[in-house]
Amino acid sequence: MKLKYIQKLFLKEGIEADPRGIDIVELDLLKREEEYNALSNKKREYYDIESLSNPYYDSRILYGDEDIEVKTVMVGIDIESQELLLAKHLMNSGVKIDLVIAHHPEGYAYSTFYGVIGMQADILSKQGVPINVTEKIVSERMKEIKISVLSKNNERIYDAARLLNIPFMTAHTVADNHVATFLQKEVNALSPFYLTEIVELLKQYPEYKHASKIGYAPFILIGSDYSRCGKVFVDMTGGAAGSLESFEKLAVAGVGTIVATHISQSGLREAKKHHLNVILAGHISSDNFGLNLLFDKLENKASEKLEFVECSGFRRFRR
């Protein structure tokens, strides 16, 4: 399959799995189009044209000819220069690698990914927090992330891919949408009474089974096995960890339990303060889950299996 087909399908499936709903995604893209049309020709020169059709700033092709045929992909949760050098070494040793895919954004996908955080406003709103509140909370968080990104040397990995001539892309929110939406539906269908039921549900999936074998099993961070769940919010997409203020707003909105990939120490203190239960599913295992759901769709839609070279914490589990 061609690289451009992979990107096109990733975006299509990412939109369909978006927890905000397709209508909100389309509205977001329409707003960008109106913003672009209002710009002068001079300002349009600096506009991210791809963002007019790609709602996810952190999921894009960074280097390579879109018309290349892809049969073997090297996939890692984090891809940096050392992984690209590893790919080149394997290629020189006779291993066929047509494309490298990173989950976490790099290069231009990283320098612009703060834009994805805006989707958290609608995600929190769906949990019952008023949209006027979520928009203000999230806008402040976007500013924080944008400032932190400015200090990074974001072209290092792009330059490595260019110099080594290795096609390279990222698949972040397009994958995270899948695990968040899938698990929210599964939890809703289970309608758990106790926290232990959610942990046992997670351990049924191969990504979490594998993580459990290497010391990263899902676990209850706040609460106990027989703490009652209340309303459960699976919080696994939206670019980065949300604002600390969101914990209070979620508790007020009636959320009793948050299932997340990870949480900061300050977030932990805030969640405890507002009596929320927290289950940590696992960061890398959840990233794997989202990627595998996405790759399953890619292979099913293309009616063609890809060969995978697993690296940097990625493990391919087909369903």
General description of the model:
It contains 14 helices and nine strands. The longest helix has 20 residues, at 131-150. Helix 6 runs antiparallel to helix 7, helix 9 (173-190) packs across helix 14 (283-302) and helix 11 (206-213) packs antiparallel against helix 14 (283-302). The protein has helices spanning 3-16, 22-37, 41-44, 81-92, 107-111, 120-126, 131-150, 156-164, 173-190, 195-202, 206-213, 245-252, 265-273, 283-302, and strands at 61-63, 72-76, 99-102, 168-170, 219-222, 231-235, 255-260, 277-280, 307-310. With 319 residues, it is an alpha/beta fold.
> What overall form do the CA principal axes indicate?
globular
Share of helical residues = 40-55%
N-to-C order of helices and strands: HHHEEHEHHHHEHHHEEHEHEHE
Main sheet: strand order: 1-4-3-2-9
Overall average residue pLDDT: 96
User: What portion of the residues fall into strands of 2 or more residues?
Assistant: 5-15%
Largest sheet: 5 strands, mixed
**Count of domains:** 2
Determine Rg (CA atoms, Å). Answer: 20 Å
Count of helical stretches: 14
Q: What's the count of strands?
A: 9
User: How far is it from the N-terminal to the C-terminal residue, by CA?
Assistant: 20 Å
Low-confidence stretches: none
Q: What structural class results from the helix and strand content?
A: alpha/beta
